[in-house]
Every structure is written in structure tokens, then in C-alpha cells.
Amino acid sequence: MPPIISVKDLSKTYGTGLSALKDINLDINKGEIFALLGPNGAGKTTLISIICGIVTPSSGSVTVGGHDIVTGYRAARSMIGLVPQELTADMFETVWTTVSFSRGLFGKWPNPVYIEKILKDLTLWDKKDSKLMTLSGGMKRRVLIAKALSHEPSILFLDEPTAGVDVELRKEMWQVVRDLRDSGVTIILTTHYIREAEDMADRIGVINKGELILVEDKHELMHKLGQKQLTLQLHEAIDTIPAELGSHDLKLGNGGSELVYTYDSQGPRTGITHLLTDLSQAGIRFKDLDTSQSSLEDIFVDLVRRDR
């Protein structure tokens, strides 16, 4: 099955000379949740804006559902729902009017039953007659999602969708996203909450300085780049790591009362047996040990640091 979004050799340089994107190549599959991660200014919003037809690329091409975003703009744009970071709507309009109007902008016939379902799914039904200016920040964020879904798109872009949203609402929103994915909608999200990407995404892309430095299945990424740590709680704190333990990747922790050993759990040897033997010979005793796995956040920070 061909990808629902295909980005080829895409670059964007602004009039100021800022190179926001550099030769981006990316395919996104139908029905997946794809998380795009990167620090501020990395190019995430520029990439989304180009795919959605808001920003013009300097070079390269993008197709959405087989439609070129330049020559087939209307067909491509009709497939896309975009949840931007900022609310762009008339503050004096009601929730119902705002969402219904967004549907009309795409030439869709009125469908009050569908609009009602969206508002109920997003816990907005009791606010349907409220003006946007009276809503909380979290409620306004829900309205953005409702607007994006109003014309029944097959692709949904979520640009920092849970920024400023409380934990309870965040969980509700992600359940809506899961339901959409299960119904066949393709989801592309950017988020600063890396835990959300770890929980939600099927694949992860990391962008930095306008370059796509990695695209990987989430589980494969964790498998390839994830490291494990063995933490040894010592009977007695030490000030420095003995020289005879220098061949091991050890760090002191918790004021010298812990030794932390980092290793590749997928390697042919973990080195733990050798480490424990050397600890015994150095006269260092431990009373307990614990292991932990690198999180996606650890991996992300490490990738961006390497790319500097």
C-alpha cells in the first residue's frame, strides 16, 4: 500500500536566509500514529505547515493521498485536519457555530448528528452554546480539535495538542485520538511531552536543525538505542571509583552510596558478571541492586546532543 503522505527532497529557506528544512524525505503510512519530536526551532511546525499547504516549500515535493500539495491543493487539503498551537477563531461565536462553520469551509453539507458526536467525544457538548471567549484554555484546545475534525478528514495533524491542558483532559483527548486511529485516520503529532509519544506513537521521527535525523518504529528504536542501567546500593559510600574498576562504565550516584553501570542489554555480553567479580576483588560490597531501561526521552535527548 502506498504511503498516505510522501515527502521528497523537501527544503525551505525563508527570505531572511534561515534554512528551516533541509532535504527532508519521509513517508507516512495510512492509519498510523507518527510522532515528530525535536527541540524548539527544529523545523517541526514548518514541515507540518508545508504539508498542510500553509507554507510554500523552496524545493522538493509533497503528495497527500496521491495529490500534489501544489497542483492538487484542494484535494490534498480536504483530506487534512490541522490542530494548530494557537486558537484562531472568533471569540464571540459559540462552540457549535464555530465547529459547524469549519465544516462548511470544506464544502461539506451540514451534519448536526456528526457535529454532536464530535462535541460529546471531546466533552464539549454542555458548552455548545457558550462563546469561545468564556472557555478555559483546555476547553479552547478541545474546540481546535473539534474544528479540525469537522469535515471528517482522513489525516489529522496535532501540533502540540496538549500544551496547557490538564492531565485528566489530556487522557480524554488521547483516547479520542486512539479511537480515530482505530477508525483508519492517520495521526501526525508533535509534542513536548515525550511520554505521550512513547505511549501513543507507532513510529517516531526526530528532527533537529531542519534535518530529519532519525525515523524508526518505536519498539525498534527502543530496542536499538535503549540502554539499561544497573544500580548497586553500596554498604558504605565511596568518594571515588577505584582505578581497578576503570574498564567499566561506572558512575557514582546518591552521594557516593550508589554505583551506576550502563550496558547494552541486546549485546552479546552485558559485562555484569565481570563487573561483580571486579567489585568483590576491589573490596566493594553492595546490599541491593536495581535495573532500569532508558526511556524515549533519554534516547531523544541523547540523539539531539549527538547532532549538535
UniProtKB/TrEMBL annotation:
Which Gene3D superfamilies does the entry mention? P-loop containing nucleotide triphosphate hydrolases
Coiled-coil positions:
none
Key words of the record: ATP-binding, Nucleotide-binding, Transport
Q: In the record, what terms sit under GO molecular function?
A: ATP binding; ATP hydrolysis activity
Q: Which domain of life is it from?
A: Bacteria
User: Which SUPFAM superfamilies would you find in this protein's record?
Assistant: P-loop containing nucleoside triphosphate hydrolases (SSF52540)
Is the keyword Cell cycle assigned to this protein?
A: no
Pfam families, alphabetized: ABC_tran (PF00005)
Q: Report the residue ranges that make up the ABC transporter domain in this protein.
A: 5-234
**Which PANTHER family does this chain map to?**
ABC TRANSPORTER ATP-BINDING PROTEIN
Q: What name goes with this protein?
A: Multidrug ABC transporter ATP-binding protein
At the highest ranks, the source species' classification is: Bacteria, Pseudomonadati, Pseudomonadota, Alphaproteobacteria, Hyphomicrobiales
